[in-house]
Amino acid sequence: MKKNYFLDWLLFICIVICAVTGLIIDFHWFSGGREVKVMLTTWHKYAGYLMAVGMIFHLSWHMGWVRNVTKLLFKDSTEIKK
What mean pLDDT do residues 36-40 have? Predict the structure, then answer.
């Protein structure tokens, strides 16, 4: 589906932004002082927010699959043999 494709790309981009900015902030791989740190923190924060919203959409669009797999995992082993 087209919406899943775009959502997956959005989530991937958000993950990359969060990972890169998180590493840069944590290991202090930046120069430029407070302004750069504030900018990196802002990018990190809003990419995380966007990723959380994307994950909510992703899970809601795949709720049927999640339900079916959960039922299969918790089925009694004797029911599977029938």
Answer: 95
Lookup result for tokens 């990419």:
47
Which residue, among 1, 12, 11, has the nearest Cα to 53 in the 3D structure? Answer: 11
What confidence tens digit (pLDDT) does each residue in 42-71 have? 999 999 999 999 999 999 999 999 999 999
User: Considering the entire predicted model, what is its pTM?
Assistant: 0.77
* DSSP characters over 24-52: HHHHT---STHHHHHHHHHHHHHHHHHHH
Cα torsion for 6, 8, 9, 11, to the nearest 10°? Answer: 120
Of how many residues is the chain composed? 82
Burial class (CB in 10 A: 0-12, 13-18, 19+), 17: middle
Residue type, 64: G
